[in-house]
């Protein structure tokens, strides 16, 4: 699939902000045999006094910006063209859960994609006994790691209600789990904790999802949004797979990857500091437009 993407993120401040420094991660990745960033651009208004590009620990391109002068709003716009390849359906070569620790111990790599970075707690994902209890029903089932991952994905999709008004970006997984409501970030965080509690390495994927309007309805411009799903290590042979608990589907050609991390804190599209007070209004609009090939 070939897509044209556009993203608009805006911040409107009650009181003009100054000394604002931000890190922006919104451009899609180029991934071998998965997706290719053909072209991409990033525009920030007001024009930054300083702007530089760097690659973070997980090998994601990021942009650092500094705006010194007072400004009432910050506008970030991204445009990109991306080619996404369909993935072949493979057999389940993952081990049963009891054998996974042996395969982890045989993995000596500590490169960014190593499963060892995704097995313990992380900044936003502490140990959560309630979620561990929820996951424990699959611990002694004799299922393979891949089967367990699919089962937990389906269970979260069944038990949780998608409700964008129930949570915020700062809602903890424990709170979202208690509510059984939330958005893709909440579904993803809960699933990662559940998998890690069983000893299965799991990480956070940030990206875009093409949405298809109901039959007979026009597609609304800007109606798409940034999305999140889960990356699971299923052993040395099977490697990494990606599942979307919000929709209970494997990540496919409608999923466009921006960043991989341990949790949202590693992949937040915009993070930073500024000098101001009062509140702010945020705007986000995304268009994912498929192109004819």
UniProtKB/TrEMBL annotation:
* Gene Ontology molecular function terms on file: peptidase activity
Domain Transglutaminase-like intervals: 176-247
- Quote the InterPro entries the UniProt record gives: Bac_transglu_N, Papain-like_cys_pep_sf, Transglutaminase-like
Pfam family for this entry, one? Transglut_core
Q: Name one GO biological process term.
A: proteolysis
The alphabetized UniProt keywords are: Hydrolase, Protease
Q: Under which name does UniProt file this protein?
A: Transglutaminase-like putative cysteine protease
